[in-house]
Amino acid sequence: MLRKLLSHAVIYGLAAQAPRLAGVLALPIITRYLTPADYGVAGIVTAYVSVFTMLLTLGLSVVMMNSFARQPQRYPWVWRQLNGFVTLWSLVYGSLVIVALYFLVPEEGAAHRLEIALLAGLPIMLFTMTELQSNIYFQLSQKPLPLAFRSFIVGALGVALNIYTIAYLGLGFRGWFYAGFISVGVGFLLNSYHVYIRQKLWPIFNFKWSRIKSSLRISLPVIPHNLANFMLDTSDKLVLNILHVPVQRIGLYNVASSFGTYFLLASMAVTQAASPFYLTYLAQQKDRAAALQVRHLTFALLALFLFATTLGSLWMREIFIVLIKNETLQQAYPLAIIILMGYNYRPMYLAVMNTLTYREHTNKLWRLSVVAGVGNVLLNFILVPIFGYQAAAYTTFAALMYMGYSGFYIRAYKDSSLVPYYPMAWMALTVLLLFIVYELATMAITVKIIVTAIAGVGAIVAAVVYRRNLKLQL
């Protein structure tokens, strides 16, 4: 039911993601003590950490989710074997990550190479698999409160430590890494209680290789897909670094892209709450009524995303003035508009990805994700030297649009789809809204107030009308 979806989204969002989003409120405090170079170093290192973390689990989260849905009595046995395998793998992999990070820290942070490598690398080695199991279990069990409580504690601690280490101790970019290491460590302790004490999901180190091999056959094709997601969300900063763009300008880009990250965190509240509904309806493979409900849910999510990003982009200049107490960093707000509007791809992408994943067509995902990711990287290498670092925002937007809408033309999806989604119409609307808010961003505040009021009234009317069609059940 819709009420259940919204209540779960509120729990995921207000409790789980609110402390992380509270980092936005910390910006007026910490940006006084940060420079574009600080943002540049942190952005580059964090980009590497993101891809290393993603590769650690070898895409096995897909197998864990499928086993939970299809084998509710046997999934603990599957999870424990996968945990044993990944735990042993992480010791070797994590050691290599620490060594790699040592040499990948930019020259501006060279004096703290070992410090940053250990703070960023050890959590990958020690904490990742436990967090993954905890997140998947509580999400698919529709028990958001424990997950929200843990996320609230970790997020609030991280924000407080950011303020303490950056504003009080004056550690600059190092403050982010100290805060991250400590808060993730606390999260590991909280996760361990639920995973190992309550659920008894201790790793089985004497696992069956046949189980691991069969799982990897399903999961490994997901890695290029996940890597492409990294290319879209994070690789821009690495490409800019490779092209020898000054770290200060990479820092400006990092500030702009961080607002896309904040929206991504907020949107995860809704998409996490929606996932069980998608799985329920996708299980009814030949039911047109179920397919219509999936479409209603997808359209509702997309309308919500468009409304939020459009208003956020309209007021982006004022948001930067209020939150970023650094005139140099405030210059990045136009790029933030472009990147933020790109994240409207997620609802339509979610519909395609859930369908292909549930049908175990994971080997088809690369056709939309890898093309988008590689295309983004190649366009950056071509356009950034010509048009400057700002071009990375435009290539990211284009790649995200491809990512969100090209999946509807994959044969594996078309063969199982029972209702049309009109992807080109939705993409055209997104592009049109981008042009409108980009032009209106510099308008007088009175004009923005009028536009916001009209949009708000229209959204309320649309929500009341559309709510009648959205009758979710579990």
Automatic annotation (TrEMBL):
Keyword Magnesium (UniProt): no
Cellular localisation: Cell membrane
Protein's name in the database: Lipopolysaccharide biosynthesis protein
InterPro entries for the chain: Poly_Biosynth_Transport
Entry superkingdom: Bacteria
Keyword Acetylation assigned: no
Bilayer topology annotation: Multi-pass membrane protein
UniProtKB keywords: Cell membrane, Membrane, Transmembrane, Transmembrane helix
Residue spans crossing the bilayer: 42-64, 85-104, 110-127, 147-169, 175-193, 294-316, 328-345, 365-387, 393-412, 419-438, 444-466
